[in-house]
């Protein structure tokens, strides 16, 4: 039986089962380019430690950051070693509770962010930190709830905390959202409209109608001249940009910003971080701000409440069984998904 990062023990109190199926990444690199999944590897069921719960996974969503970790792009920081079980977003049922956990109990339906360092979503059971695990409202399906942690938190926090736009319906901000048909972008459009902002969104031509239906005021084909230049059809300058894609030079943003404005960079790299540093040194009022996710339980609860009330829709691009999780991985790497990619138990 293979062993992965962490200490595991055999567990007898869950229907007398002592093993579960999971997907292991053996070494770094992208699928179909040198890295292979071991299908249905049998692993000891982990035991929750202090501040943790054991969740029987019903569904898990795939995020680009998951396969970027696998590719080795975040070395030497993540992962700490191979092999490991990838993925961070899950929904399921609590089957065991570690010491010190008072907010959750066995039998609770929950959704959770597992953390990049730990991973573990592509398995039948996963250890989840109690501090980033919350109750799932019964009105929300598991395949929807598992999509909320990374994509939902990123959309909410980038708009509210980084761009400084309150979710109160009274904002007069002009907001640009690039890559609006991706997992984060679709949530960002809806949350921005809940704030009251005027939303300009870029996406591919095939998704323009969807983005309009979600509330965007202006939708631009990113392949058009207007889209390539990030110009608002109504000539508006932006107070903030939620930048969900990559490869757009600062000069393109700057030409469309108000004198005091922020571009929130959701996929920062060395080049963009250098631009951020230079602008800070020059005390520019047009800022490029790298985003870092904060797994706050209160924010997960807020997302759940918005979804429960029908104010936040989850768009599912595709569903894949755990036995074919590599198909979900490949779909995400292609970069053309509309909404979220889900792996089901």
TrEMBL record:
The Enoyl reductase (ER) domain, residue ranges: 29-343
Annotated organism of origin: Adiantum capillus-veneris
Lineage: Eukaryota, Viridiplantae, Streptophyta, Embryophyta, Tracheophyta
Organism domain of life: Eukaryota
Name by which UniProt lists this protein: Enoyl reductase (ER) domain-containing protein
Single GO MF annotation: oxidoreductase activity
Pfam families reported in the protein's UniProt record: ADH_N, ADH_zinc_N_2
SUPFAM superfamilies the UniProt entry points to: GroES-like, NAD(P)-binding Rossmann-fold domains
Span of the signal peptide: none
């Amino acid at each position: 039986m293979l062993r992965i990062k962490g200490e595991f023990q055999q567990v007898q109190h869950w229907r007398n089962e002592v093993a579960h199926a999971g997907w292991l990444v053996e070494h770094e690199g992208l699928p179909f380019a040198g890295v292979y999944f071991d299908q249905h590897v049998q692993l000891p069921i982990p035991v929750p430690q202090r501040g943790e719960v054991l969740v029987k996974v019903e569904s898990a969503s795939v995020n680009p950051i998951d396969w970027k970790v696998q590719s080795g792009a975040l070395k030497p920081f993540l992962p700490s070693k191979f092999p490991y079980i990838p993925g961070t977003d899950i929904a399921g049922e609590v089957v065991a509770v570690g010491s010190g956990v008072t907010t959750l109990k066995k039998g609770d339906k929950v959704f959770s962010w597992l953390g990049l360092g730990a991973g573990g979503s592509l398995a039948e059971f996963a250890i989840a930190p109690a501090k980033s695990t919350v109750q799932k409202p019964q009105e929300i399906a598991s395949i929807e709830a598992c999509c909320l942690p990374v994509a939902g938190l990123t959309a909410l926090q980038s708009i509210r905390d980084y761009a400084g736009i309150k979710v109160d319906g009274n904002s007069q901000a002009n907001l640009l959202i690039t890559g609006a048909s991706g997992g984060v972008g679709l949530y960002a459009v809806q949350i921005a409209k809940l704030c009251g902002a005027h939303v300009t969104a870029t996406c591919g031509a095939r998704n323009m109608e969807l983005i309009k239906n979600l509330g965007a005021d202006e939708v631009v084909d990113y392949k058009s001249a207007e889209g390539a230049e990030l110009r608002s059809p109504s000539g508006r300058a932006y107070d903030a940009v939620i930048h969900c894609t990559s490869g757009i030079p600062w000069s393109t943003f700057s030409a469309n910003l108000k004198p005091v404005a922020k571009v929130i960079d959701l996929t920062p790299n060395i080049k963009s971080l250098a631009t951020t540093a230079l602008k800070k040194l020059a005390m520019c009022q047009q800022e490029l701000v790298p985003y870092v996710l904060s797994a706050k339980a209160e924010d997960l609860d807020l997302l759940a409440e918005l979804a429960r009330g029908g104010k936040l829709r989850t768009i599912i691009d595709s569903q894949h069984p755990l036995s074919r999780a590599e198909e979900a991985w490949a779909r995400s790497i292609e970069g053309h998904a509309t909404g979220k990619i889900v792996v089901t138990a």
